[in-house]
């Protein structure tokens, strides 16, 4: 199952906090196909078939394709001074 670093968890919490309708929600990752990769969005709740990953209170919802594709990955993030976030995927040790 996908895991998150503490930095990624903090980034997810910051992003979700910016969306008033989703303050208890999470970041949803949807597999858009091998050519286009993944789509990230803020969602108030997971969809019925989503896998939910929780780290330090941060929630990530994975659609079925993303859950399968990211099964052995680690989600990391880089937080910039201007508040922007850059996510990266690594391989679990």
Structure description:
This protein is an alpha/beta fold and 93 residues long. It has helices spanning 6-17, 64-69, and strands at residues 3-4, 26-33, 37-43, 51-55, 58-62, 73-79, 85-91. The protein is built from 2 helices and 7 strands; from the N terminus they run βαββββαββ. The chain is globular, with a radius of gyration of 12 Å. Strands 3-2-5-4 form a 4-stranded mixed beta sheet.
Q: What is the count of helical runs?
A: 2
Query: Order of strands in the sheet with the most strands?
Result: 3-2-5-4
Report Rg.
12 Å
> How many strands appear in the DSSP assignment?
7
N-to-C SSE series?
EHEEEEHEE
Low-confidence stretches are none
Mean pLDDT over the full residue set: 93
Shape: globular
The chain-level structural class is alpha/beta
Percentage of residues in helical conformation: 10-25%
Biggest β-sheet: count, sense, barrel?
4 strands, mixed
| Relative strand content | 35-45%
- What is the terminal separation in angstroms? 13 Å
Helices, strands, pairings?
Layout: E1 3-4, H1 6-17, E2 26-33, E3 37-43, E4 51-55, E5 58-62, H2 64-69, E6 73-79, E7 85-91
Parallel strand pairs: 1-6, 2-5
Antiparallel strand pairs: 2-3, 4-5, 6-7
